[in-house]
Amino acid sequence: MKHYSAFAIAREALRGHTGWERAWRAASPKKHYDVIIVGAGGHGLATAYYLGKNFGITNVAVIEKGWLGGGNTGRNTTIIRSNYLQDPSAAIYEKSRSLYETMSQDLNYNVMYSPRGVMMLAQTEHEVRGYRRTAHANALQGVETQFITPERVKELCPIIELKGPRYPVLGALWQPRAGTARHDAVAWGYARACSAMGMDIIQKCEVTGVRSENGRVTGVSTSKGEIGCDKLCMVVAGHSGHLAEMAGFRLPIESVALQALVSEPIKPCMDVVVMANTVHGYMSQSDKGEMVIGGGADGYNNYTQRGSFHHIEETVRALIETFPMISRLKMLRQWGGIVDMTGDRSPIISTTPLTGCFINCGWGTGGFKAIPGSGWATAEMIAKGTPGPLAAEFGLNRFREGRFIDESVAAGVAH
Amino acid sequence: MLILTCPYCGVRADETELAPGGEAHVARHGPGASDEAFEAYLFLRANPRGLHYERWRHAHGCGKWFHAARDTVTMGVVGTYPAQVTEPPAELSRPRGS
Ligand SMILES: Cc1cc2nc3c(=O)[nH]c(=O)nc-3n(C[C@H](O)[C@H](O)[C@H](O)COP(=O)(O)OP(=O)(O)OC[C@H]3O[C@@H](n4cnc5c(N)ncnc54)[C@H](O)[C@@H]3O)c2cc1C
Ligand SMILES: [Zn+2]
C-alpha cells in the first residue's frame, strides 16, 4: 500500500498522476478462509480491520452482494455522538467516537471527521428532564456533555427559531466533541487497510446459504460458489433476518425504511449538528453546502430502500418551524436505507445457536457512529470465541432474560 | 404510497389514514409460559423478504383493526381480511402470480 501524503500528491502532480495504485484489490474467492464476514458495510469492514490489527488474523474474506459501502453505510446522515443514557451504550459509542478522532491517521485515509458538536434540542418539559438525566449519566460515564440554555443554543446555532409556535426550544443536550465524518471514506479507508493486510474483499457476491456440520458452521454458498471457513460473522444490517434464516435461527429484528434528503448547496449557515427528536427531524450542513436532513423511520416492514413520502413531509414541516430560513430551499435528492430495528433499540453483538457463527446487527437508525467501536468489539468476540467487555451486554440472550438496554426512551428519533 | 382496503367499511385508505401494528398471527403467551415462548411472543419476528402478514388499524376511518397480506420487497398488496382469525385465509397464503 502506497502511503498517502502531501509529498505523494506533489510527486504525482509532477508525473501526471500516473503512479496512483488501486485502493484495494479486486479479489476472487479462495476455497477456504479462517474468517468470513458477510457484508462490506462499515461494521463488516471494521470488524475485518481489527481482526487483522488487534489479533493478527488476516486470512479473512469480506463478502458483499453489491458494492462496498452501498448499504446503510453509504446512505446515512453521518452523525457521530456518544451521549447515550445506558452504561453499556455509552461505553461502546464513546470508544467508537474516540477511535474516530484518530481514524484518518490510523488508516492513512482522510475520513473528514469533524467534531463540530451535536446538540439535541429539548422542546418539551419531558425532554428537559430526560436530557438533564442523560447529562448526569454521561458525567458518571466519562462522556463530556452539558445541558445548555436556549440562549446558548442560539449562540451556537443562530439560524434556530427559539420560540416556534408548537415546540419552543427549552434547552439542549450538547456534546462538543460529537460531529460528522465522510461515510464513504470510512468504508473505503477500512477496505484499503484490509486489502493491504492481505484480506480479500469480494464484491458482487451474494451469500445464498450457510453450510454447517454437526451444529458447527463450515462455510457459505454464494453466487460465486461455495466458500469454506472456520468462523463466520454476519454483518448485514437490514438483511440480518434473511441471513439468520439461512443459518436456522430467528432474530428479534424488524427491517424498515429510513429516509434522508439533501437540499441545494447554500453558503455556510450552520456549523453544528442539530437534532430535534420531539418533532422527528435533524439537520446539518455538509462541506459542499447542502443541508443534510433526516427524520423518523417508516412504521412497517419493508425492503425497498425508498420510504413513504408523508414521513419526509412531516420531517420537513417540523424543521421549517425550527429553522424558518430553510422554507424556500429546494431539495435535490432523497433516498432510503433498510434499517434493522430491535425491541430495545440497542444493537446485537453476539454468538448464535450455530457454533462458529457470530452476528453483528440491530444498529438500526444509528450505527454509523458505532462503526469503529463495533468492529473493535466484534473482532474481539470472533478471535476469542466469546464477547469481551464492550460486547458482553449486547448478546442475543438479553431478550430472553429481560436484560434490555433500553435506549428507546433516550432517543425518540433516528440518529 | 401504500393503499389498503379496509375489510369493514370498504374504504380504500392510503397509509396516512392507517396505523401499522406489526406482524400478525403471533402466538400469544401468558403467565406460566417458558422464557423461550415469551421471547418468541414479545420479540422474535419473521421479518420476511416477501409475503408478510401484518396488523393495521383504520385509525382515521372506522377505527377498527384488520389484517393485510403484503409483499415487503415489491410493495404489492395481496389482500386484506378481518381481525377475528388466527391465520390468513387460504387464498391469501401465496403471493399473486406465483
Ligand atoms: C437514511 C439513514 C440515515 C442514517 N443516519 C445515521 C446517522 O446520522 N448516524 C448514525 O450513526 N447512523 C445513521 N444511520 C444508521 C447507519 O447507517 C447504519 O446503522 C450503519 O451504516 C450500518 O452499517 P452496517 O455495516 O451494519 O450495514 P450496511 O452498511 O447496510 O452493510 C451491510 C451490507 O451487507 C450486504 N449484504 C446484505 N445481504 C447480503 C448477502 N446475502 N450477501 C452478501 N452481502 C449482503 C449489503 O449489500 C450491505 O452492503 C442512518 C441510516 C439511514 C438509512
Ligand atoms: Zn374502516
UniProtKB/TrEMBL annotation, chain A:
Keyword line: Cytoplasm, FAD, Flavoprotein, FMN, Nucleotide-binding, Oxidoreductase
Domain Rhodanese: 35-79
GO cellular component: cytoplasm
Enzyme class: oxidoreductase
Cofactors named for this entry: FAD; FMN
NCBIfam families (UniProt xref): soxB
Protein name: Sarcosine oxidase subunit beta
Native source species: Roseivivax halodurans JCM 10272
TrEMBL record, chain B:
Gene3D superfamilies: Folate-binding superfamily
One annotated GO molecular function: sarcosine oxidase activity
GO biological process, one term: tetrahydrofolate metabolic process
Record's protein name: Sarcosine oxidase subunit delta
Lineage of source species: Bacteria, Pseudomonadati, Pseudomonadota, Alphaproteobacteria, Rhodobacterales
